[in-house]
Amino acid sequence: MNTLNMTRWFAVGLLYLLLSLGNVAAAAPPIVEVYGTHFGGKVQYHYRVKNNGLYPISSVWIGHDTLNDADYYNDVWELKTDISGMFVNKKYPSPDYFDIPAASVTSPPGWEVRRISLEETEEISINWLMADDYSQPVAPSQTMGGMSVTLDKMDMTYITSHATINFGGRSKKDEITVPLQRLDITPPALTVTLNPSIVRENDKLAPITATITVLDDYDPAPEIKLESIIASEPMENGDVKEVQLGTDDRQFQLKAESKTNAGRAYLVTYSATDGSGNRTTASATVSVQRKDEKHEERRDEKNKKRNKD
Question: Is 96 exposed, middle or buried (0-12, 13-18, 19+ CB in 10 A)?
Fold first, then answer.
């Protein structure tokens, strides 16, 4: 094979290699991961981007789904709950593009974050971008974290929406939209213990205290709610007192009463929800010991003692 043919085959091989790399880049888009945590009565959403492509990342939009045209007004701004204290007019947020208070967000070193809204709508997105020309983009094969948003209440659109990644260009050809990937998909582990778990029937209200243990692989403080208190027999008004359903209420009163020979059992159910929206429930019971049951127990104890003697 002469030198000219070798050169041609080398050029073809190089072109094939470049095309293959381009296909790999197309088949391995960036990944934006998210999970949520609770703290101080608020919810914080944490993001990190993994650059699996060939070009550095200069911007990450959360809650933005770009379309294949040149008009951003046809895009979808997916976030519904805005960061508290950012504007007064909830119907038409203004201005459309400005910095977010530092108390509500965190950013990686050399990056800043802004809130973007679609004109005359309540639809918004959150955009992390390099602060200036000296900032470092997310290079290929690198991962960048340190991005978070704090809200007054849970909003699952911050978990289930999309992210638009920009590779440094000024047109939509330099962008790609990917769905957010939720890191935390496991519900918290929840246990409930009630004290006392047995009360003697006396037709009075018995104070009950719930002890709750909850563990989650991402959220150090999942939200606890008292979901329900039901009984094995019909209840009347006043059988349950000092209770706030739907809150983290761990002290209440139950009436030590039974209307049937089977006795009454209260079933108390709590839920635990982590910042990523995973929810679990757990229950415990309080049994009302009927008066005749107590008498029979004492009689049995006396008979056992007499037989032993």
Answer: middle
